[in-house]
Model the fold of this input.
Amino acid sequence: MKIDLKSKFTGALIGTAVGDALGAPVEGWSMEQVRSVYGERKRWKMSYGRYTDDTELMIGVAESLIRNKGFNGADMARTFVRNYDAKRGYGPGSAGALKRIKEGESWDEASKKLFGGEGSYGNGAAMRIAPIGLFYYDNADALREIAYKSSQITHSHDLGKEGAALQAFAVALAVRGQKESMLSELKEFTQNDVYKEKLRRVEALLDKGATPKKEIIAKLGNGMAAFDSVPTAIYSFLRFDSFEDSVIYAVSLGGDTDTIGAMTGAISGAYYGKGGIPNEWIEQLEDGEKGRSYIKRLAEELYRSKEL
Ligand code: F2R
Ligand code: MG
Ligand code: MG
Done:
């Protein structure tokens, strides 16, 4: 069945929020603790419905791309600062970079001071990247360049930027309907040995078939580092045949559940479209000023700005 592009744009943005909101109440928990909350049922009930920093930042990326008809680093950074709500649970590095920018430091310098001058390799740039994967889905060079630049606002470490570019390209390939060839395309795309090795492991684990979750966590990771979560999201998407199964699996691994859920939701939503996301999950999502209705409108505007 052919899924239209507008539905894929909406699927990726709403998919981010759904995965985030499913994982949010259990972020940092072990897989056993997650099971104790959600149980063994096939269909999970979303009781919370509130998204976190992952979706708040993704909204900022989309707003800025739409307003500028493409990337504008200073505007995107200002948008992050304007939208910032500490209650959404930001990573300390991202919160620190945004504080420096608010105090006047330039958008592409502030993040370089973090972690003793190393910069952050956290997954904060990857978890918000879906709109860039959508906007540049048909141009891999531009996608890579803009993924790196948009990461720089908070994440200057190569591993943080590369994780974001890889996640953006996975979303782009999902938009194009390339599930079968996704892994080989991603392996060719990545320029970093850490990610090349992780993608080799994804391939070996997919070839092996059903594998205990403990082994998946040991080999791919479920933590806040981009290299311990982006490959896990890619695996979660590739391993299953529906949005629901892949996102439930991603969250069930425990650890950085909201973020691995959000990234899996972005790729799966871009592939299956909005219609692939269970309605009861969408309806359970918060619907305040920047809730689900707003996110749907953003996706439509992003789609239209791409078409123009
Ligand atoms: N912050 C959280 N969750 C904790 C509290 C939420 C709680 N549930 C609540 O309700 O309050 N989640 C969010 O943060 C993650 C994204 O983090 P981001 O934006 O990448 O931040 P940061 O601080 O830059 O990186 C995360 C951690 O990675 C380690 N790290 C990164 N670079 C490092 C380096 N160069 N050297 C050593 N360690 C490095 C640090 O431990 C960072 O703190 C998402 O999970 C999002 O949901
Ligand atoms: Mg979060
Ligand atoms: Mg998280």
